[in-house]
TrEMBL record:
GO terms for biological process: SOS response; translation. This is Probable alpha-L-glutamate ligase. It comes from Roseivivax jejudonensis. Gene3D superfamilies: 3.40.50.20, Acid Proteases (2.40.70.10), ATP-grasp fold, A domain (3.30.1490.20), ATP-grasp fold, B domain (3.30.470.20). The keyword Magnesium applies. Its cofactor is Mn(2+); Mg(2+). In the C-terminal section; belongs to the RimK family. PANTHER family: RIBOSOMAL PROTEIN BS6--L-GLUTAMATE LIGASE, RIBOSOMAL PROTEIN S6 MODIFICATION PROTEIN.
Length: 471
């Protein structure tokens, strides 16, 4: 069929058959077969899992579409503003209340705005119905023909280009946090500025229905809705329960910025150092023992004094002691053992001079870095203990080390703390819930925005494995 057959220039009419290939680019749907029905007022789209979210003043709706008949494995997540809710009577006489959305319709080389109702059309042959309100005045219907406009192909869904064309749809995101601190406020503020709905959930108030068919997370007496992504801000005191909640979201299939395994590994300082050793990531010489008879041997493994004695459960510099002499180290170790506390002994990197570097890694790349300096007379550089921070340029080796450390823990968001030593960068710690205040203040970068860039990229629909597609 030639282009002359598809249009009639003399009458300036667009000729439609009773079925046409269309695209809905606003929803990330590059190819759909639509049945043209002038008997229907409003157009309709086949949608699953229809769910409203957002504020009452500006409600939005989320839904999923299976654009290819017979391909239930191909799922395109969509969202749009709710324009209306309307009672629609189908051809079989049944009435249904449907959400109405607006989007752009593309047919051939033409595009124009239309309204769509959302409904489950699983019993219908066409994934979309094109009603008379969507048909422009200069469209003429040829009821005996089909595909008079440019034909498309479902094969487009098997291409990586489908991700590049996918719109940045509105997302529903949960921030798991017990504190209304700077980091939580920034995540809410940045998400809402992008049109997303961001809900702060107290981790300890979640509870779980654990079963094989329909695992759920409940909160304050009700099942939590589907979230596009979860951003964990799990405090050290609730690591065990917090990671259990994250595992439940993972079981449901929700994208979690940091997974339960990575958070657990980062919080267990002994396991964290063993994991870094497995991945050959530079770190201070570290030793661990249980028996008090091994104290001298333990210290010899690390080196000579001064040395660091660190509780395994230490956070923000608490439970970290600098022993300047061998005798002082023995006293601290004996004291910790008397408390039945688990601890590590580490070499003290003198050349670091009370400074470390925090590298913020998002999605496998360092997006910001700062140098932290301890308060006067304090070897610890934690900002929570009065330290100061300023922006710093890092070397390629330091950047690679930070990225490798985040990757070893499988963290999409990580604060990697490095020491600059004579033998290269040494990783002190990998933080799975890094604060944003210090790094944003020092670097003047929108780190929260970079995290949302990564989330938006990850929750886009992925191309499906190409196999024989209908049409």
């Amino acid at each position: 069929m030639t282009d002359d057959d598809r249009t009639d220039p003399a009458q300036d009419l667009i000729r439609f058959g009773w079925e046409e290939w269309v695209a809905l680019p606003d929803l990330g749907l590059p190819a759909l077969r639509a049945k043209v029905d002038t008997g229907a007022r409003t157009s309709a789209l086949h949608a699953y899992d229809i769910e409203t979210f957002g504020s009452a003043k500006a409600p939005q709706v989320r839904f999923t579409v299976h654009p290819v008949p017979g391909r239930e494995d191909l799922v395109i997540p969509c969202s749009a503003k709710v324009l209306d809710r309307r009672m629609v009577t189908s051809s079989n006489g049944e009435s249904e209340s449907r959400y109405v959305i607006g989007c752009t319709l593309q047919v051939g080389g033409e595009s124009w705005p239309i309204e769509l109702t959302l409904t489950n059309r699983s019993g219908m042959a066409s994934r979309m119905l094109l009603g008379r309100e969507a048909l422009k005045d200069h469209i003429t219907i040829v009821a005996t023909d089909r595909f008079l406009q440019k034909e498309l192909s479902y094969d487009v869904y098997a291409s990586s280009a489908v991700r590049q064309r996918a719109p940045n749809r509105a997302l529903r995101i949960a921030v798991l946090s017990r504190e209304a601190n700077y980091s939580t406020r920034r995540l809410v503020e940045e998400g809402e500025s992008r049109g997303h709905t961001v809900e702060v959930i107290d981790t300890t108030r979640c509870y779980m229905a654990i079963n094989a068919m329909a695992p759920e997370v409940h909160y304050d007496g009700a099942r939590l809705p589907r979230y596009d992504a979860v951003i964990p801000r799990i405090g050290a005191s609730v690591t065990s329960y917090g990671t259990a909640v994250i595992r439940q979201f993972e079981t449901i299939g929700t994208f979690c910025v940091n997974g339960s395994e990575g958070i657990t590994a980062s919080r267990d300082k002994l396991y964290a150092h063993q994991l870094m050793a497995r991945h050959r990531i530079g770190m201070p010489n570290t030793a661990f023992a249980s028996s008090p008879k091994d104290t001298d041997s333990l210290m010899r493994l690390v080196g000579t004094a001064p040395m660091i004695v660190k509780l395994l459960e230490s956070t923000q510099g608490k439970g970290v002691v600098l022993a300047e002499t061998k005798k002082a180290a023995q006293s601290v170790i004996d004291a910790f053992r008397g408390l039945r506390a688990n601890f590590l002994v580490q070499d003290f990197v003198k050349e670091a001079a009370g400074e470390d570097i925090r590298c913020l890694v998002v999605g496998g790349r360092v997006v910001a870095s700062m140098k932290r300096t301890g308060a006067e007379g304090d070897f610890r550089s934690n900002l929570h203990r009065g330290g100061s921070a300023k922006v710093v340029r890092i070397s390629r080796e330091e950047r690679d080390t930070a990225v490798r450390a985040a990757r070893a823990f499988r963290l999409n968001l990580a604060g990697v703390d490095l020491l600059r030593s004579e033998s290269g960068p040494k990783v002190l710690e990998v933080n799975s819930s890094p604060g944003l205040e210090g790094i944003e203040g020092a670097s003047k970068k929108n780190v929260a925005g970079m995290l949302y860039d990564h989330i938006e990229e990850r929750v886009r629909p992925a191309p499906v494995r190409k196999r024989k597609l209908l049409g």
